[in-house]
């Protein structure tokens, strides 16, 4: 039996005051999208502002453009969905079994402060659904609270792009908040891969988080396992 999974994308296209562009990191979208879609899951894209959701230009070029990314760009249905996303606030999150907040540096600006992000997470969490995110997308969890009013991540095992990785890419000087730092401030039990940019996923109850682009397929695989669905070919 397939599940309904909502993919949430940033609408932030400007990389702070650098004059550069940002958005969703394509690999984090595409690799998870096809692992889930090829297994028969029902997927839907949404974004914070609605309309065309920006992709980070760097993720569209070598060496960062992956086979999954190329497949997504060449997929007419996927491209059409990306060009006309519904606004997250206009959706009823109770109709989804899981939500996946896709990363990309743009997410550091709008995910932590958007009321619809908070409402979506809390609605799906309360119904026992799965809340997942990867890289900068994990900042979506920063504004959400548990039933007892504490931060949703407090006392939970979580991961996101590490401060070391942010420093290596110099994003630590650009993004408004560092995911690792924020998770720890909120009481999250942060963990990361042994080496920078290595794949790493944390699963704590119904919360699934991935560290970086390489972790996106690991998040998708963990979602399938939690949904009691075996990945194709497993």
Automatic annotation (TrEMBL):
<keyword id="KW-0378">Hydrolase</keyword>
<dbReference type="InterPro" id="IPR002818">
    <property type="entry name" value="DJ-1/PfpI"/>
</dbReference>
<dbReference type="GO" id="GO:0008233">
    <property type="term" value="F:peptidase activity"/>
</dbReference>
<dbReference type="GO" id="GO:0019172">
    <property type="term" value="F:glyoxalase III activity"/>
</dbReference>
<protein>
    <submittedName>
        <fullName>Putative intracellular protease/amidase</fullName>
    </submittedName>
</protein>
<dbReference type="Pfam" id="PF01965">
    <property type="entry name" value="DJ-1_PfpI"/>
</dbReference>
<dbReference type="InterPro" id="IPR050325">
    <property type="entry name" value="Prot/Nucl_acid_deglycase"/>
</dbReference>
<dbReference type="GO" id="GO:0005737">
    <property type="term" value="C:cytoplasm"/>
</dbReference>
<dbReference type="GO" id="GO:0006508">
    <property type="term" value="P:proteolysis"/>
</dbReference>
<comment type="similarity">
    <text>Belongs to the peptidase C56 family. HSP31-like subfamily.</text>
</comment>
<keyword id="KW-0645">Protease</keyword>
<keyword id="KW-0346">Stress response</keyword>
<dbReference type="GO" id="GO:0019243">
    <property type="term" value="P:methylglyoxal catabolic process to D-lactate via S-lactoyl-glutathione"/>
</dbReference>
<keyword id="KW-0456">Lyase</keyword>
<feature type="domain" description="DJ-1/PfpI">
    <location>
        <begin position="84"/>
        <end position="225"/>
    </location>
</feature>
<dbReference type="InterPro" id="IPR029062">
    <property type="entry name" value="Class_I_gatase-like"/>
</dbReference>
């Amino acid at each position: 039996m397939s599940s309904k999974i909502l993919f949430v994308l940033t609408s932030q296209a400007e990389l702070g005051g650098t004059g550069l562009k940002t958005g969703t990191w394509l690999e984090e979208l595409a690799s998870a999208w096809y692992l889930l879609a090829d297994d028969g899951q029902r997927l839907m894209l949404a974004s914070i502002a609605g309309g065309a959701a920006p992709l980070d230009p760097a993720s569209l070029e070598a060496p960062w453009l992956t086979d999954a990314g190329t497949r997504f760009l060449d997929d007419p249905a996927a491209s059409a969905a990306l060009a006309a996303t519904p606004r997250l606030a206009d959706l009823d999150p109770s109709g989804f079994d899981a939500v996946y907040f896709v990363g990309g540096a743009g997410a550091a600006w709008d995910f932590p402060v958007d009321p619809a992000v908070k409402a979506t997470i809390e609605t799906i969490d309360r119904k026992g659904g799965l809340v997942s995110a990867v890289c900068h997308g994990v900042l979506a969890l920063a504004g959400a609270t548990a039933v007892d009013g504490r931060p949703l991540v407090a006392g939970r095992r979580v991961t996101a792009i590490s401060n070391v990785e942010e420093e290596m890419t110099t994003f630590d000087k650009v993004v408004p908040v560092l995911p690792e730092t924020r998770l720890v401030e909120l009481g999250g039990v942060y963990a990361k891969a042994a080496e920078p940019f290595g794949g790493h996923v944390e699963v704590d109850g119904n919360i699934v988080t991935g560290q970086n682009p390489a972790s996106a397929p690991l998040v998708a695989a963990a979602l399938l396992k939690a949904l009691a669905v075996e990945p194709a070919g497993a």
